[in-house]
Amino acid sequence: MARKDATEEKLARVAAAERVGDDAALANWLTDGGPVAALAAEAIGRRGKDDAIPALINAFPRFLRHPEADKGCRAKEAIISALDALRNGDPEPFRAGLRHVQMEPVWGGRVDTAVFLRAACVTALARLHPAEVHFDIQPLLYDPAPAPRQAAVRALAYLGGENSELLLRGKILAGDDEPDLLREAFAALLTIASARSLPFVESHLWGDDLARLEQAALALGASRLPEAYPRLLARWQANTDFALRQPLLLALALTRTDEAFDFLLAQLPEGGTLALLACDALVPYAADPRARERIEATIKRCRNPKLADRYTELVPPAP
After folding, report:
1. Strand positions, DSSP E, the chain
2. 8 A C-beta contact, residue 295 and residue 282
3. 8 Å CB contact between 168 and 188
4. How far apart are CA 98 and CA 170, in angstroms?
């Protein structure tokens, strides 16, 4: 109980130091235990004084060497966040954080609490863009935890260039059990080098990996590239797998082209599950009054109670 009271007193003193703008006191609190140092680092980040960078850099290695002093990596995360906010130009703290793994006991086993620390360090390094940054990022694409992998993909999207493009292609070919990550990787390629990436992304529309196919289709549709609609339409026309209908319809809708809108409307009279899936895909178009009028007129002509109910559920009547 006494230890808890002492920590709470220190936290109160850190908060007081921030209120009065005592930067020296805040820097001194970085040498304390994890919760106190974390609060001090957060305050330093909010204060925005870059002369506090050396104190943050000096404090970071101690928590790497003595993880028991920073359970949950809260202090390390706060220090990295503050360094990034203050535009620290030294990549070494970020690189050290990338390599940190901190296994802590939990009910039934152990868990790595440094997952979000590694993710934050990837993001910070991308902003700093030091020499050989792609070598720093590459291992994180295959991190055991999803958050660092996703941060690595986003960092490569931010950096752009051929090196990022090659790493993203490698990640896609290796696969991932997080579908959203693959979609972000496809989308990043289409942003970095659309002309060169289109054939690569399109090739995954015809593969055997259903999850990868879906994410490639959705990324292609969301790219709004003029070449997206005909490629997605060709895959739809060759489709023999009912499981592909929903992602392909959604991808076609994401292109937001007039041709896609007409195609989706044409599916409504088909009835059955296909009409319901097309109705789902048409929902974003209903924000446009003219498109909404055409959708509702088509549904009315279909005389399909299930379709009408589905549309009313998804798009409530205008007031």
Report:
1. 103-106, 109-112
2. yes
3. yes
4. 20
Residue 280: Cβ within 10 Å count: 17
- 220: three-class secondary structure by DSSP: helix
Closest among 46, 29, 35, 30 to 3, alpha carbons compared = 35
Domain ranges for the chain: 160-237, 256-319
* Cα–Cα distance, 184 to 195 (Å, whole number): 17
> pLDDT tier at 2 (50, 70, 90 boundaries)?
low
Q: Which of 222, 225, 149, 152 is nearest to 187 (CA)?
A: 222
* Other CB atoms within 10 A of residue 278 CB: 25
Of 20, 32, 63, nearest to 11 (Cα)?
32
Q: Kind and range of the H or E element at 206?
A: none
Cβ–Cβ < 8 Å for 249, 277? yes
pLDDT in tens, 60-83: 999 999 999 999 999 999 999 999
Calculate the CA 141 to chain-centre distance.
13
Amino acid identity of residue 191, one-letter, is T
- Provide the whole-model pTM: 0.90
**Burial degree of 182 (CB within 10 A; 0-12, 13-18, 19+):** buried
> What stretch of H or E contains 295?
helix 289-302
Residue 10 vs residues 4, 5, 57, 134, 242: alpha-carbon distances, Å: 10, 9, 22, 41, 62
Supply the angle between the helices 179-192 and 161-174 in degrees, to the nearest 10. Answer: 150
| Angstrom distance (rounded) from CA 68 to CA 292 | 59
Q: Report pLDDT digits (tens) over 4-38.
A: 678 899 999 999 999 999 999 999 999 998 899 99
User: Which two structure tokens, joined as six digits, stand for 95?
Assistant: 């690189």
